[in-house]
Specification:
Blueprint: H1 14-79, H2 82-93, H3 99-117, E1 124-131, E2 136-141, E3 161-162, E4 166-168, E5 174-184, E6 191-200, H4 201-211, E7 223-228, E8 233-238, H5 239-243, E9 255-257, H6 264-268, E10 271-275, E11 279-288, E12 293-300, H7 301-304, H8 306-329, H9 331-352, H10 367-416, E13 420-424, E14 430-433, H11 438-446, H12 464-470, E15 479-484, E16 487-497, E17 503-511, H13 513-558, H14 567-591, E18 599-602, H15 603-613, H16 615-618, E19 624-629, E20 635-638, H17 640-657, E21 664-672, E22 677-684, H18 691-694, H19 714-724, E23 728-735, E24 738-746
Parallel strand pairs: 19-21
Antiparallel strand pairs: 1-2, 1-6, 3-5, 4-5, 5-6, 7-8, 7-12, 8-9, 10-11, 11-12, 13-14, 13-17, 15-16, 16-17, 18-20, 21-22, 22-24, 23-24
Helix pairs in contact: 1-8, 1-9, 2-3, 9-10, 13-14, 15-17, 17-19
């Protein structure tokens, strides 16, 4: 499998792509090779520089170590002078009361140091004699200096001691250091003082570089010799000073203390590091074992790597020249390979545009010539077949026109049908439908998980539930009634073999809602008529006995001779008698045929009045009743008292259904301009109504409450009053948490003021 499925340079023409690819490949090989060469040379050069730097640093460390050791030995020679030791001893033992004698000893010691000792060593600038108590006994100076008249460092050492580097404040701030040597008594038993010599480090540099001039070879690379004493003070000496010591009498350099906050390689100046104001340097450090100092040799990385830089530049120039030569050599492939391919491409474009008469002229006998000849043959074959296809196309166009006429005729028939029509293929997919079939299609999508779950060949029941399972079964034909979007549809299915011998199916749905509603209304009117007659007879037959029972019971309650223990029984008889009378009154109210009034009133004010009247029913609970007005047309014509009875009945049912602690009832109104109707919606978040109960809630005497909490006539009466006004009372949703009743009333309709049937 190819890792690259698409040419990344597909947007570039081949006459540019091929030369650039050759140039890129060549330059890539050149760059990779050059990089390897430069890296190898750089690595080897770095190793050589480090080895050379290590060798040079060791050589310079040995030279300076020996010279500083020689200065220390000179200081020890001075300290071993018997005259100096004797005079030092006398100066500490002589009685100070004999001042002239003390003065003579002091003068002799100074004269001896100045004439016989100090001139011997050129680097020595001053000599100091300190007592065993660190007090200054004698001083000899070649240069004026006050910086170290009270020197006390190193006076506690019993051996030769080298001090750190200091500035000579009175001598151009030249770097100096001290060598302290203990003075031993004549009998070699004890230390009687110290001889301290001040050394001008500038003269040390001049003398060493002059003496070992061959060791400090000339270098045009920026290079430094650095001394770091035991306190961390460093002294940088440019290389030109070491190459020309005869022109330097004073070393004009600064002493600096190392910044210990920097990384170790920068503090120690070892390896490749940055210093000299960001300049990258090589460095190698070597200790001076006699003084406790370190010596470092540094040189500029840029100067040291000049050869590598020149090599890189040469490789760049060479690469540019190679690229130019490759472009020149690509002339022949472009002329004799790419150009013919371009002509073939132009010919293919012309053929694509419909000109099949074009031909390409190429007399070459190579692969390009064979390809051109093949293109010519292909164009000739296409031209011949195109003529044949045009003839066939005319025939197909005529047949297609006839098929389109038949199809349009079929579509017109299907679209003009008021019944829904759905055509399924062998896979159960819808291939044809009309607008009347939209409710059935939507119903099938909603209940998709219920389809095809049963063996339809064994089901003879045409109930809606079983029918829904088998609607899409191509092998079964059945009819059934389904309720979809609160409307009833009669669905008839027929198996249909197609021309390709694959089974299909036709589903025809017819809206029979009005037919069912008409039959239901007739049945309901019949039941209500029978119920009304029965209620009148029952009320007439029951009122007389109940009146007698109530009268005699009242007489017993008023009779003084009745024992007290029977009064409780009398109250029970009266309470149940009253309950029976209430039931009979309800039956009479249901059986009466009151006359509707035609009144104009504000429906919103009526709803607010109903909510206010029901306030005692929910005032002691946390039930929230909201009224959402969504219409500006508030005035309707209806019987205000009867409409109030409907709204109170449904709101009271909602209050009784919801939780008394977190119940919510929402009442809203909406105006349908197309039908000139107002729709009152009453929604609650109660437990909902079961599917088996939802179809019975409007039946007379049907109730889910106990026998002592309702008669089951409320919703039946409310629907009867609504229909008498030409409206509709319906349960549109009965899901848990979202039960919705709607009351649809005409706004300006003249109602029938005759008694209700």
């Amino acid at each position: 499998m190819s890792l690259i499925n698409k040419d990344p340079l597909s947007g570039i023409k081949i006459k540019y792509k091929l030369p650039l690819s050759f140039v890129a490949i060549s330059l890539l090989a050149f760059v990779v090779g050059g990089f390897i060469i430069v890296s190898t040379v750089r690595t080897n050069l770095l190793d050589q520089i480090k080895m050379r730097l290590k060798s040079e640093t060791g050589t310079y460390a040995t030279i300076f170590d020996q010279h500083l050791l020689m200065l220390g030995r000179r200081s020890q020679d001075f300290a071993s002078d018997g005259f100096i030791r004797r005079q030092t001893y006398f100066l500490q033992q002589n009685d100070l009361s004999n001042a002239p004698n003390h003065q003579n000893i002091h003068q002799d010691l100074i004269r001896h140091l100045k004439n016989n000792k100090l001139p011997i060593v050129d680097e020595f600038t001053n000599l100091y004699i300190y007592s065993i108590e660190d007090s200054l006994l004698a001083t000899v100076k070649n240069s004026p200096s006050r910086s170290n008249d009270n020197l006390t460092i190193g006076l506690d050492s019993d051996t030769l001691w080298y001090s750190p580097l200091f500035h000579d404040e009175d001598n151009n701030d030249n770097p100096i250091f001290y060598i302290s040597t203990p003075l031993i008594s004549i009998d070699n038993n004890s230390v009687i003082g110290h001889l301290v010599a001040t050394i001008d480090f500038s003269k040390v540099i001049v003398n060493v570089s002059g003496k070992y001039n061959n060791a400090f070879s000339y270098s045009d690379i920026e290079k430094y010799l650095t001394f770091i004493d035991q306190s961390g003070t460093k002294l940088d000496i440019p290389w030109w000073v070491l190459n020309s010591p005869e022109n330097l009498s004073v070393l004009d350099v600064d002493l600096q203390h190392l910044n210990t906050n920097k990384p170790n390689d920068q503090v120690n100046h070892e390896g490749i590091h940055e210093c000299r104001s960001g300049l990258e340097m090589f460095g190698y450090r070597f200790p001076l074992k006699f003084t406790g100092w370190d010596i470092i040799v540094e040189l500029s990385t840029a100067n040291a790597m000049t050869a590598i830089t020149n090599l890189e530049n040469k490789l760049l120039y060479t690469g540019a020249i190679v690229g130019l030569l490759i472009l020149l050599t690509m002339y022949f492939p472009v002329q004799f390979l790419i150009r013919p391919l371009g002509e073939l491409r132009e010919m293919a474009t012309t053929i694509k545009d419909g000109d099949l008469s074009t031909r390409i002229q190429n007399e070459s006998s190579d692969e390009i010539g064979d390809l051109a000849q093949t293109f010519n043959q292909m164009a000739a074959a296409l031209e011949e077949r195109t003529k044949s296809l045009k003839k066939t196309s005319l025939q197909l166009s005529e047949r297609e026109r006839e098929a389109l006429i038949q199809r349009d005729r079929l579509k017109s028939v299907v679209k003009s049908m008021t019944d829904g029509l759905i055509l399924l293929n062998s896979n159960g997919e819808i291939v044809l439908s009309n607008s009347g079939g939209a409710p059935l299609i939507q119903h099938l999508k909603i209940n998709q998980d219920k389809i095809g779950k049963l063996d339809c060949s064994r089901i003879n029941d045409d109930s809606p539930t079983k029918c829904l399972h088998c609607l899409m079964d191509l092998a079964s034909s059945r009819s059934c009634t389904l309720k979809m979007n609160n409307r009833y549809y009669e669905v008839v299915t027929t198996s249909l073999p197609s021309m390709s011998k694959e089974k299909g199916k036709i589903l025809v749905s017819r809206d029979i809602t009005e037919r069912i509603q008409f039959h239901e209304k007739e049945n309901r009117q019949d039941r209500l008529s029978v119920l009304g007659n029965m209620a009148a007879v029952v009320a007439h037959e029951m009122n007389s006995p109940l009146a007698a029972i109530s009268m005699y019971n009242q007489m017993m309650a008023d009779d003084q001779i009745v024992p007290d223990e029977f009064h409780e029984h009398i109250e029970v008889i009266q309470r149940n008698t009253n309950a029976c009378q209430d039931i009979i009154n309800n039956l009479l109210d249901y059986a009466r045929t009151p006359t509707l009034k035609s009144e104009k009133f504000d429906i919103h004010n009526l709803i607010r009045e109903c909510i206010s009247m029901l306030k005692p029913a929910y005032n002691n609970s946390q039930i929230n009743i909201q009224f959402d007005e969504k219409t500006d047309n508030e005035i309707i014509i209806a019987d205000e008292g009867q409409i109030k009875q409907i709204i109170i009945n449904i709101i009271l049912n909602a209050i009784q259904a919801v939780d008394s602690f977190k119940g919510k009832v929402i009442i809203s109104t909406n105006f349908d301009k197309m039908k000139n109707q107002i729709i009152i919606s009453i929604q609650d978040n109660g437990p909902g109504i079961g599917n088996d109960i939802s179809v019975k809630i409007f039946d007379p005497f049907f109730t889910t409450r106990g026998p002592d909490k309702g008669t089951g006539l409320g919703l039946s009466t409310a629907r009867r009053i609504t229909e008498a006004h030409g409206g509709i009372l319906d349960l549109v949703n009965w899901d848990p948490g979202n039960t919705i009743f709607t009351i649809t009333l005409p706004i300006n309709r003249e109602i029938n003021t005759k008694p209700m049937a």
